[in-house]
Amino acid sequence: MSNDIRIKKGLDIKLKGEAEKTIEQAIISNYCTIRPEDFHGIIPKLIAKEGTQIKAGEVLFYDKSNELIKFVSPVSGKVIEVVRGPKRRIDAIKIESDKSLDYHDFGKLDANSAAAEAIKAHLLASGCWPFIKQRPYDVIANPNKLPKAIFISGYASAPLAADLDFTLQGKEAELQAAITALSKLTDGKIHVSVGKTSSSPLAGLSGITLHKVSGPHPSGNVGTQINKINPINKGEIVWTVNPQDLVIIGELFLTGKFNAERLVALVGSSIEKPRYFKTLIGSEVSTMVYDKGISKDTNARIISGNVLTGKQVQPDGALDYYSNIISVIPEGDDYDFFGWNKPIFDKVSTSRALTFSWLSPNKKYDLNTNTNGEHRAFVVTGSYEEVFPLDMYPLQILKACMYKDLDEMEALGMYEVAPEDFALTEFVCVSKQPHQKIIREGLDLMLKEIG
Amino acid sequence: MGLKSKLHQFKEKNRDKKWLPAFSAIHTFLFLPNETTHGGTHIKVADDLKRTMNTVIMAMLPCLIFGMFNAGYQHHLALGEIQAVTQGFFSPEFWTMDNFMVGFWKILPLVIVSYGVGLGIEFIFAIIKGHEVEEGYLVTGMLVPLIVPIDIPLWMLAVAVVFGVVIGKEVFGGTGMNILNPALTIRAFLFFAYPTWMSGDKVWVHGAKERANQIATGENLDAISGETILGSLAQNSKEMVDSATDIWNAFYGFIPGSVGETSAILILLGGLFLIFTKIGSWRIMLSSVLGAIAMGLIFNGVVDTGIVGESSKFYGLMSTTWWHHLLIGGFAFGIVFMATDPVTASQTNKGKWIYGFLVGFISIMIRVFNPAYPEGVMLAILLMNVFAPTIDHYVVRGNVKKRMKRLKVKTA
To answer: Nearest CA to A322 among A132, A91, A94?
Structure first.
C-alpha cells in the first residue's frame, strides 16, 4: 500500500519575498519574551517572580490545571518584568538576557533504553512538553492520556514557509533521538510526512511511517495529513509536533540541555533581503527585521508565523513559541477608488470575477493586509470546498460553531480540526468571516463542555 | 485635500452616529475601505460581496438592454408599424433607436422604482439594526424589472418590492439569512395579488392593455394581442412553435414575455459568463437543464403512447418537443439567475445537483399542469428553495454517517 498523500483541493498562495537559503546568526537579543497566550488554554502560575535570576531551561511558570506541564526560559538572565493585563492576567514575561546562555542541566537520557514514564517525566520537567500538541482541541497534549498516533509534518506548504528540508539539515541525530523518545509514548505509529521530491533528513529516520505529500496548500498542514492517513474518531487522541521542535526535544535527550535555538525564515515582500536567521525562541523581532529588512518608518506588519495563521507583533515584540518564520508584509490601510468593481491584476483570487490571477498561476504577488471588502453574512457557497481537502463540510461546521450546537459540531468532525485548517477558507471567504476564530471558539466550547 | 481624505475624515468624525451605515454604503461604493485584517489570516482574496454581486449584474445587463429593444419591437410589431425580423439575431428591423427608446422609457422607471424602494428599505433596516448595508439587493433590484410584464404599474411594483424585501428577507435577518429568493418572492406576490396584471394575453406587449381598455370604452380600434408562446401552447393553439423561424425567434428573444426573460441566447451567454467567473453554480444550471429535459421527454413519451389525445387541455404543452421547453418562457432566465442564488439554493455540491435537477423537473411539470398560469419556473424555484435545507441536511448526514461508521469499525 502506498503511503503517499496527494491533495487536489487547495490553493498555493505565491507571494514575493521567499527566503534565500543562507543562514545568518541573528544579533543576540537583549530581552526574551514569553507570552502565555502562545499556549492556548493554559492558565499560567508564575514561579519566576520579577527580579529572579534564572538559567536557560529553568521554570518560568506552570499550568494551573496541570502542574506537571512546565514552561521554561530559553535564555539565562533576570526576569525583569511580568506584564499583566486585565484581572492580573499574565500577558508576558520579559527576561533580560545575560547573553551567556548558562544552561540548566537536566541530564542526558538514552531514549532507546529509557522507560516511557522516565521519558515523559524528562519532557515535562525540561519544558519540552508544550511542544507536543494534541487533537482534538489543538491544545498542549494532556500527559495523562495515551495518543493513538503521533503526526509530524515535515512538509511546509504555507505561503513563504520556511523550507524544512533546509532548516533541519544536519539535525538527524537530534531528530532520531526525539522520534525514539516519542515512540515510547504511543501504542500507535509515528507518521512523518515529507514533500514528494524532498531530501528531508526526516525521511531517513527509523521507527517512523513515512508519507510523501504532494499538492497545493494545505497539503503540508498536519490536520490534512491526519485526515487522510488516520482520521480522529470520537474519544481518540493524536499528538502533533512541529519538526523544528523535535530538534529541541532531541537535543535535550542527547545533551541534557533545553536549547531553544531555532532557524527562523525572515520573509515577505517588505523585506529587502529575505533569509534565514539562527536565533532563540522569544527573541525580539527587531534583532532580525531591520538589517537589510525594512526601514524603521515602513508601514508594514510584522507577523510571527506565516501570513495565514501567524500573530501580528509590534516592532518591539518577540518571536512566538512555535513559529519558525517571521513574515513582513505591507499594511493595506488605504482606500482604493472603485476597488470593488475595477479589474484586479495584482491580487490573488479564486474566482474570475474581473480578477485575473487565473491568467498567471505562477506569478508571485505582493499582497497587503487590506481585507478587500467588508465583513458580511455567509452568502457564497461552494468556494470553501475548493480549497478544503478534509472530508467534511466547512460551511456547515462553521455555522454549527456559530450557533453552538455541540452535537452537530461533534457529528460534523470537530474533533479532527484545528483553526489552521480553516486558514485557507478564511482567506478565500468573500464575506470576510473570521473562520479561524469561529473554529477556535467552537473548540474551546467543546473543551469546556465535553472535555 | 482630495475626496478620499475628506470622506475619511467625515467617517472618523461621525463614527458614533446612527446613520453612519447609510454613509458607509455610499462611501464603500466609491472606495474599497481601508480596513485591515486583525486576527486570523493577514491577507485576503481580492473578492468581496460587492464584486460578486456586480458580476451577476454584469451578466444580466445584456438581457436588460435587449429587453429595451424588444419592448419597442413588440410594441411596434403589434401595432403593425414594422415588419417582423427576417435576418437573424442582428436584423436591422430590431436594433433600431426607435425600438430602444420605447423600451428605455418604459423600463428605466421599473429599474428606478425597484432599486429606489428596495435599497431604501435596506438602508432603513441597516440603520435600525446598526449593521452595514448588505449588497444582496443589488442583484435582486436588477432581477425584479427583468421578470415583470412591461406595462406593470409602478405603484404595484413598489408594493411588491416592499413586501418581498421586508417579508422575504429582512424578517429573516437580511442578506444571507433568507429562505426564499427575494426577487421571486416579489414576483410571486405580484402574481397572487394582481393576477390580471401578471398573466393573460394583454400584459406582455407595451400598449396592449391600454388598447384593450380603449376598445372596451367603445373606441373603434383593432385589438392587439401580445400572447406569449407559452400562453398559446397552453390553449392548444400550436401554430406558434411550428416553424424553425419561431424557434430561432425564441432563441434570439424576439418574442413577447417578461422584460428580460425572452432572449435565450443572451441568457445562455450570461450563464456561461457566470460559470466562467465561478460566481454562478454550473452544477445547478446543468442539473436544472437535465431535469427539464427529463420531464420534457417523459411528457413527449406520454403523448407518443396516445394516452393524452389532442382533445386534452394538456396536449399543447405536453407535446411540445422536449428541447423547445428550454427556450420558451422564463425557464432559462430562472435557472441561470435565480435558481443559482447561493443563499436560497442548496449549499452542498451534491445537494446542488439534486436541487437543480428538481427545479428543472418540477418547472416543466408545473408548466404543463398549471391551468391558470403556464409558467412553472418561478413556483418550482420557490418550492425547491423551501426544500434546499432538507436536501442539504441529508447530504450532510451522509458525511456524518461515514464518520460514525469509521468510529464503529474502530470500536468493534
So the answer is: A132
Q: What pLDDT, on the 0 to 100 scale, is given for residue A111?
A: 86
Q: Please report, to the nearest 10 degrees, the dihedral formed by the alpha carbons of residues A25, A26, A32, A33 taken in order.
A: -120
- Quote the CA–CA distance of B336 and B288 in Å, as a whole number: 9
Closest approach of B178 to chain A, Cα-based (Å): 10
pLDDT reported for residue B374: 65
Look up cell 494545505; give the residue: A218
Interface predicted TM-score (ipTM) of this complex, two decimals: 0.90
More confident residue, A247 or B87: A247
Q: Indicate whether B173 pLDDT > 80.
A: yes
Residues of chain B with Cβ-Cβ distance to A371 below 8 Å are 33, 35-37, 44, 48
Confidence of residue B323 (pLDDT cuts 50, 70, 90): confident
Burial string for A336-357 (b: 16+ CB within 10 Å, else e) reads: beebbbeebeebbbbbbbbbeb
Contacts of B276 in chain A (CB under 8 A): 352
Q: What is the DSSP letter of B277?
A: T
Domain limits of chain B? 49-216, 239-387
Task: Identify the pLDDT of residue A1.
Answer: 41
pLDDT higher than 90, residue A31 = yes
Q: Which of B240 and B148 is assigned the larger pLDDT?
A: B148
Among A97, A130, A147, identify where a domain stops. Answer: A97
**Optimal mutation site among B44, B172, B348, interface A, most CBs of chain A within 10 A:** B44
Cα–Cα distance, B401 to B137 (Å, whole number)? 38
Please give, rounded to a whole number of angstroms, the shortest distance from the CA of B279 to a CA of chain A: 7
User: Of A351, A413, A426, which has the smallest distance from its Cβ to B403's Cβ?
Assistant: A413
The domain in which residue A71 lies consists of 31-97
Compute the count of residue pairs across chains A and B with CB atoms less than 8 Å apart: 226
A422 domain-assigned: yes
A323 shares a domain with A306: yes
Interface mutation target, options B42, B53, B404, chain A, most CBs of A under 10 Å = B42
Cα(A260)–Cα(A37) distance, integer angstroms: 18
**Residue A411: which of B343, B403, B410 has the nearest Cβ?**
B403
